[in-house]
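Ticket opened by: R.M.
Priority: normal
Category: complex prediction / small molecule

The reporter submitted a protein together with S-adenosylmethionine and asked that the result be attached to this ticket for the collaborator who will pick it up next week. Submitted input follows.
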Amino acid sequence: MSIDRLFPDLTEDNRAELDRFREALKTVWPLKGKHREQLKYAIRDMSRGLTSERGDRRPDYMGDAKFLSPYLYYFLPWNLYRMSRLFTGLSFDVPDGARVADLGSGPLTAIIALWLSRPHLRGRALDFTCVDRSPKAMQVGRELFHAMAGKDAPWRIHTVKGAFTEHLREKADLVLAANAFNELDWSGRVARPQAEKLAAHLAACSTETGRVLVVETGVRLTGRIIAELRGRLLAGGFKPIAPCPHAEPCPMPATGQGAPWCHFNLSVKGAPEWLQLLSREARLEKAGVSLNFLYASRQGAKEWDGVRVISESFKVGEGRGQYACSQKGLTLVEFGAGGPGMEPGRLLVPEWPEAPRRDQKSGAVILPWKGAR
Ligand SMILES: C[S@@+](CC[C@H](N)C(=O)[O-])C[C@H]1O[C@@H](n2cnc3c(N)ncnc32)[C@H](O)[C@@H]1O
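Result attached by the on-call engineer:
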């Protein structure tokens, strides 16, 4: 039996809000004539830059209109879509009066996504501290937030120009960092101390009962970043809430070539038509989006023992299977041929065989699956 969906479809309200976001963009950051015409090229250039040529960018690249326009019209709304699905799936909640810190907030993407996807939070008095080295991006984000939420929204937003590790005056009940830490250098021996520094900062920023959510882009490098951060956070007394169904070492840390690593591919169902059209125009048509993340606190999840489906399905012998994660380590959920498999992110309640077999190729422990897909 599967007991939850980590990435449920967007609600009607969330879809409508994402649609409306285009109007907010047009009001806050209008693009006229030549700039509108060139948007597709700017998106394509930036897409290439974000993946392969990051060394060439100025530190405050987000403050430059050349980058900010494509970011606001393309990357930001796709991030809103990805985070909307994640925040809904995590049943994300923050109590009235809570403090939230957002590190590397850029145009306040995570905060806008919270507003769009968690309507029950809209009436709560929440206090946000956004940190980024680009004040311009945060200023535009603030205007976009108010264009969506109205001037009377009870959310207070402070912006701080600074590095990810900028000292925060007050500890937060929730510390977010979305699509941000991949901007640092993670090469070779730098990775471990980098993770140590960031994990120590995340822990120092959060209250005793505070939670930390790091969302990343779902590429292999960020699989490694999340695994390194997870290792350091756990060593510092944190425990995972999601996606990990255990607090053992990560069995999918993106270190070995060819080995499965922790990330989720989602469909683009319910993404705004205007965004799909723009993506097509930029020849970056999307059949799916990816993400990886770690949600953790000192208390961790209430119960473990589940099996989290990670990969999409693939052929295994005569049948099909999907890589998953469990207390036993890397797991291969095996089922008969036919059918599309299960949606990545599902948490299964397993019935383990007495002596589970191992997959020869990956070494994964095999869970034969007879339940509903
Ligand atoms: C790709 S954007 C992500 C923005 C937003 N969180 C989102 O999900 O759309 C990365 C942001 O991190 C900021 N940034 C990069 N390196 C930084 C650093 N060392 N300290 C503070 N901010 C940094 C950039 O200015 C940029 O706004």
